[in-house]
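User: Batch of two.

Assistant: Item 1 of 2:
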Amino acid sequence: MRAAVYSSYGSPEVLRINEVELPPIKNDDRVLIRVHNASVNQFDCLYRKGYLPTRLDNGLKKPKSSILGIDVSGIVEAVGKNVERFKVGDYVYGSCFGSHAEYVCPPQSGLSHMPKNITFEQAAAVPCAAQTALQALRDVAKIKLGHKVLIYGASGGVGHFAIQLANYYGAEVTAVCSTSNLQWVKDLGAHYVLDYTKEDFTNNGQKYDIILDAVGKTTFFSCLRSLAENGVYITENPLYPMYHPVQLLVGSLIGRKKAKLHLANPNDMDLEFMRGLIEEEKVKPVIEKCYPLDQIVEAHRHVESGRTKGKVVLQIISQFACVDP
């Protein structure tokens, strides 16, 4: 099969399209998927660059796992003998490692049937970003009806799902993004929009029950005066900016305002939950651009710029053209 692989850490140019062996069904609970689409996440860029914490997991000098990708949509080609939820021919989406390839073989616990009303491209945009936003708001922040929620980086992959989910839970949503994205994040359901290039939300005197930094550009201490008395600050990046790890630790130990770190915990129950919301048209994935697998380098450059509008997706099966919604 064809796959985007890397044998050393570095810039997007370390990625190559090579022929590799088809993944076997090693365990009885695994599902072989012919991949239609996969998304590109900041996670992929960090692993490709060899960010120190990722090297502890994937090899200090060179990557042990040479195929990136954590989101997938496609068609089931084969199943292990203990798989009961899926059969050959099912359309599925979910979370797995190594999805930047024509075939992948994840455990069934990270998969769900695809929502019936979206495309493979759109389905591949959902798993990591939507589950990150959902778990941060629902499980970490304990979002409630009437909460005031501020989402920093609201136009990105996690951010655009967070707007819609906070709206679903009945919160008042303030979205912070750049000038060009103000209208479309409002169209997604934000009640208020702030242009970070013109206004610093920490100086506007407003208090928020939840501040979700979806891009890792703020700190707990910088947001303290914008948090309500029992407010929760959540970040997706534990190591940036400088001194942020100390702030997260201190914030979790003192005071009633809390600092939390959240990384997605992929699971089939949350994928099923998101499938229901998408089919009920309460949430919709937004794709800025779809790249063919052969343009994996350009896709990484795009995501690494930090200026994505929604999600960036790869088209893996070459005989189907990318479709930008």
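Item 2 of 2:
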Amino acid sequence: MHEFTELTEKLFKGAHNLSHLREEDIQIGVTPKEEVYREDKVVLYRFTPKVEPSLNIPILIVYALVNRPYIVDLQEGRSLVANLLNLGLDVYLIDWGYPSRGDRFLTLDDYINGYINNCVDVVRDRYNLEQINLLGICQGGAFSLCYSSIYPEKVKNLITMVTPVDFHTNEGLLNVWGGSTLGSQALDVDLMVDTLGNIPGDFMNLEFLMLKPFQLGVQKYIDFLDTIDEDKLLNFLRMEKWIFDSPDQAGEAYRQFMKDFYQGNKLIKGEIEIGKKRVNLEKICIPVLNIYAEQDHLVPSASSLALEKYIGSEDYTVRSFPVGHIGMYVSSKVQRDLPPTIVDWLKARV
């Protein structure tokens, strides 16, 4: 009875704390930017420089298709983008938009040989450069590895962050659910795509929440009820807004990614084909900085660290941070140390 009364009091207190907040108070993506290219639902943005760029080679951020890329620019004081700008980088970002029913037949060929390649060419043309820098994050890191293998002449330096490489590392429950051990017996991807067309964002969200059902579905909301500081309330709500802002996944792209990467583990086998182009990680001979999260439950460290064994680069650097997958974006310590790590590494390779 006492526990029920205590929880009821927390609920009333939490409701009171939220009563004056409005949707417009929960601002995300705070750094000014301009649209420089648009194709279908994909938009390429350039963030407004805060200081005179100290490097003459811009960096293009390639984010995952899952969730929205504004997590790298979440809020004032917790923005990877803003911190990179402050250190003199010229930053571009690909926003994939929200696939609709008309996009169900988009393939990885469309995303990598199409959208990414076109965005890279736009940036190259704006600066009259042969090569630019890439920063691939999570699934976007896997895409960037494929791109750098196919178009090594267009990439100067490659940075991968919380990027899965070996998808048969069974430390991660997501890998097991995706089919690293049982293949289609674990997840019948063909049945899903043939039935649904696009994969609903809500399904993806539920899958991620079920990796830690109590922590992500119950405990964080109980802890939230103890939050009385408005800044912390807004921080919490910004994260909730991002977590549940989940685009649907284009069906054919999802089919290939799950079957070839998760179930077939073809990236490290050299068996991935994007369009008619074969991905061979050994062809990546450019400098590579691989950044991973030591407590990542979505992309186990072993999955990311496998990269060193398969690329051809002799200039390979690895850096880690003692946080989880989301902590790479929101941890104040990471945001203090990560941007200088990236900038210093790039400056040494101009």
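The longest helix spans residues 108-127.
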